[in-house]
What we know:
Strand order of the largest sheet: 4-3-1-10-5-6
Strand content: 25-35%
Shape: globular
Low-confidence stretches: 1-6, 293-302
Mean pLDDT: 87
Order of helices and strands: HHHEEEEEEEHEEEEEEEEEHH
Radius of gyration: 22 Å
Distance between the termini: 46 Å
Number of helices: 6
Helix content: 25-40%
Number of domains: 3
Structural class: alpha+beta
Number of strands: 16
Amino acid sequence: MSVIQNKRYMTLSEITTEVRNITGVSSTDVVSDAVIHDLISEAQYQLCDEANLLQGYATRNSVADTSEYPMKNSNSDEVTDWTAYQVNLSGGNTASTSLEYMTRIFRVDYDGDMCQRIGINEISDISGDASLSNITTSYAYYIHDDKLGIFPTPTEVKEIKVYYYRLPHKMFADATCDISSGSANVTMDLTTDVREGMIVQGSNIPFDAQISSITNTTTFVLSGNATSTASNQTLTFGKPEIDERYQRILIYYPCWRVVERLRDVNLISYFKNEWLEQKQRVILERQSRDGNTVLTIPYNDF
Length: 302
């Protein structure tokens, strides 16, 4: 049996081809590959957000006499204090980063102990005295805008550990890639959407090659060497991060949106209903495994 036959996941190219075959839109002049790639990524975003399919955790140290810690970048400040785990697709960690991909926090530990969650209004009510609250743990946490708060205010340097649900990374293709025979280095116009651990596919690239590291804004390193030299070659980046059982569901959303562009009334309702039905099945299955009720609020709730 060949290596390819052992592969269980669907690649971005395979999902794109399936969408074209099902909708009958073979011409990239009608719908470009880039549009379909974005729709596939959007489908995965929705599944992961509404069904809480992907998890990660991050750590940083507290600062004495500081109660609140930024988690996401703002217009004026870049957050670089967190070390995030299980978000770089290779199972390793990403140091000096923000928590941009986080959608919901489901647990916070301080100095190795679980913290109870409280509302920010409770902080004002108890005026710094934890004995006046209903807190049943040594420390509690709260959310204030994009900041994580620890109560009572830490007086020592201790580890803060945040467990959260996250969004997947974008899947895409790029036609500006330059490769050299016998080299693992790849240059491109911008590595903005590139992440460590991403699967990279294309001509003259070893099967299942991954991104080992990102050198700078235009260069990254593969896990294997290119077998030929080429300029401005198209490479595809990423694969579905969700469980293999759910990956075929990603076909329905782009099919729905593509036939909308074609104004095919009969197929619009079919693919829309299939997408919504299959998505709800995933949500119900995920929630039942966690013992939680179905989540219906479509916004970020840190």
